């Protein structure tokens, strides 16, 4: 399959740091892949789509979010009727600058070196919040500040979720759990113990 190159100067015009688009996908398969010199965040708002990357195919349903990196040839088409997707395009300079300032993002999302793009999932509540932020993106200036205000909270949430899953997996492997609370038993003198002995069986079971 041939590959078409898309350039940021044709998408990010007038110095914009990002571009946002909403699209209804056709079920007809693309005749060509396309590569780009920018980064693209895509999520499935409704329906199901197939992401083709060379010989690899990834099916994504509602709530799936994919981080497509620059220079990653791909194509999209619907796998169900009424498939609707949202995409936010970011300049390569913006993504590079964010990665340089946030070590926690190294090896993740747009900054991953894995052979396939990173795919995350947002539940109904999280997807609604993501769409709300996307609506704001449409109304404000296409600045780097607004792009970061949108992208960084999402990345922070995904990092926190991954760390939580990692802790749970480690706990399952090791069988580790919090120790049971210690029961503190006071020590009394022999005289007091003798006086309390008739009560112990009733009020102080050991």
Rg (CA only)? 27 Å
Class, according to the CATH hierarchy?
Answer: Mainly Beta
Shape: globular
Order of helices and strands: EHEEEEEEEEHEHHH
Strand content: 25-35%
Give me the CATH fold name: Jelly Rolls
Helix fraction, binned, reads 25-40%
Structural class: alpha+beta
Give average pLDDT, whole number: 88
Name the quaternary structure. Answer: single chain
The number of helical elements comes to 5
Number of separate domains: 1
Instruction: Please state how the strands of the largest beta sheet are arranged side by side.
Output: 2-9-4-7-10
Poorly predicted regions are 199-206
Distance between the termini: 77 Å
The largest β sheet comes out as: 5 strands, antiparallel
Overall CATH architecture: Sandwich
DSSP strand count = 10
Please provide a written account of the structure:
With 206 residues, the chain is of the alpha+beta class. The chain has one domain: Jelly Rolls. The protein has 5 helices and 10 strands; from the N terminus they run βαββββββββαβααα. It has helices spanning 8-11, 92-101, 124-139, 144-174, 190-203; strands spanning 3-6, 18-24, 33-36, 39-46, 48-53, 56-61, 64-68, 75-78, 84-90, 118-121. Strands 2-9-4-7-10 form a 5-stranded antiparallel beta sheet. It has a 3-stranded antiparallel beta sheet with strand order 6-5-8, with no helix packed on it. It has a two-stranded parallel ribbon with strand order 1-3. α3 runs antiparallel to α4. Mean pLDDT is 88; it is low at 199-206.
């Amino acid at each position: 399959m041939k590959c078409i190159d898309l350039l940021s100067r044709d998408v990010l015009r007038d110095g914009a740091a990002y571009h946002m688009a909403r699209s209804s996908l056709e079920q007809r398969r693309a005749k060509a892949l396309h590569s780009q010199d920018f980064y693209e965040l895509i999520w499935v708002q409704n329906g199901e789509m197939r992401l083709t990357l060379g010989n690899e195919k990834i099916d994504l349903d509602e709530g799936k979010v994919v981080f497509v990196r620059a220079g990653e040839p791909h194509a999209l088409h619907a796998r169900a009727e009424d498939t609707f997707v949202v995409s936010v395009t970011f300049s390569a300079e913006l993504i590079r600058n964010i990665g340089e300032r946030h070590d926690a993002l190294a090896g993740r999302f747009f900054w991953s070196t894995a052979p396939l793009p990173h795919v995350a999932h947002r539940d109904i509540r999280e997807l609604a919040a993501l769409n709300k932020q996307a609506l704001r993106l449409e109304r404000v200036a296409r600045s780097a500040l607004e792009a970061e205000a949108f992208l960084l909270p999402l990345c922070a949430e995904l990092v926190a979720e991954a760390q939580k899953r990692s802790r749970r997996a480690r706990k399952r492997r090791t069988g580790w759990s919090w120790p049971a609370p210690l029961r503190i038993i006071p020590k009394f003198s022999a005289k007091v113990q003798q006086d309390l002995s008739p009560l112990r069986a009733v009020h102080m079971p050991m």
